[in-house]
Amino acid sequence: MEHPEAPTLALDPPRKVVLTFESGSRAGQKQEIPFGDPPEIVFGRDPQATVTFDPEVDELVSRFHAKIFVQKSPISFEIVDLGSSNGTYVDGKKIQQRLALRPGCRIQLGKGGPACVFDIHPRPGDALPPTRVMTDVEKATSSQDDPGTVGRRTVEAMVTSSEQKTSRRMQIGSLVIAALLLVAAVLFFINRREMSQVQGLLDRFEDGRATTPGEIAEQYRFSTVKIDTAWTLVHVSTGEEVYHCYENGVPIYVRTHEDRAEPSLCANRGDGNRKVNWGPIQGSGFVVKSDGFILTNRHVAANWRSPYESLPLPGMLYDLERENLDSPIELANGRTLDEDERSLLQHWVPSQSIFFDGGQSVNKVVEGRPIFLDVTFPESPLPIPARIVRVSDSHDVALIKIDLPNDVKPVELRRDSSDIKVGDAVSVLGYPAVSPKTIVGISQLDALNRSTQQREIPDTTLSTGSIGRLIKGNANPSGGGSFAYWSTAGEVYQLTVNSAGRGNSGGPVFDDRGRVIGIFTYMARQDVIVTFAVPIEFGRELMDISRVTR
Question: Cβ neighbours of residue 28 under 8 Å, at least 6 residues apart?
Fold first, then answer.
């Protein structure tokens, strides 16, 4: 139903707002709120909300979900969604901006979430229920008192006709109910995957039209953040920084497997030894919860768990000679690392090092530690310190957290990706490194520090394209074949977005309904530029407790 502009109620003001709950944990209850106290009525699971919901039962409701603005003069009511995860619906329609409320409107927090009817008491004259229009039978019956109008036989004929119509309607209604019951029985027995596909289609067409890339950028640019970080490698037992060992000014490498080698690491400076660190690193991320949880790439937030790109070459390569794993390891047969052997170092991941201080270990010996991890919102000069919450063991995804006293707006995550297909339009938001920077000077007003600092003011860049290919990480053949395949790129979406690159890593990839379907991860350049995104379900795994299937 269409809603008019905010109405002006001209008569005496109501004494209170009345909310009658139809579903959810508060079904059957009423809540009365004195008019204008407070001037804003906030719905949510947070205890500070005006209208609170059970945090366990009403799980579709956000901490601060929606707000009603109450205006006293002239009297009017408007409702707005506060960036909730599941949306706010008025009379069955999802609201996109401020919407006028009239007495009798039905408010629902999330599709299938708790619902209530909005009312004011007592109702002013122009807010009374609409006048009911008489039926044909009522008009005919009432005309008996008026000379020259419809006679008795005509009235009886109209009554008979009405009864016949009612009977036909009941028959049709019974058939419709039977058909619905049959459909419900069929849906009950189809598998869960098919159900999720149906839900995905319903979600896709819920709003009736596609969202333009410009609308997506306008709605979620302040949910997309710039991430700056640097890290150093530390010894897990002592917490001391780790060094790459040098000998006579030459870096030392150790061949640990037939096809792998890694730097010789040690815990002291020694003979020109150099710290193993990396940075600064620039990337992107996006808010997934209003209390400050942010998804990004693993190679942005925890880069020490990705292949290292800054090994000094050439160097000396040693092979390991040992009798068993517990015996002391000796270095022998040192020689200059030639061009063919440099490929042995391409896949060295610092956190997976096994050679330290002349010995090999099966246990974890080193780990990365951020020197800093800062999050900056667009158009803001002040970064916010963040901390790492979880890092995926198998995908290029990490979850970090900032702490602020106020909520921040999250993006909407697509719940089902089974119907994503090649050719679907996508939009990417982020902070590509090639984009021109905006710099401002900030004068210190601190009496102890009157210096002037220069800061970057980040702003999001919008890139568009489509899904060019769906790449599965591994799969088994249908029909029980004896072979299987796996992808060198892992499980990713290949994109035709060629204006995004370094710095976009960790940014959101949206579908044409403004829902995040992936996390931009990297680009490859040969004859053409090809980009990739990690499916959002691997980000969801970090936001929940995952269990091993047995």
Answer: 21
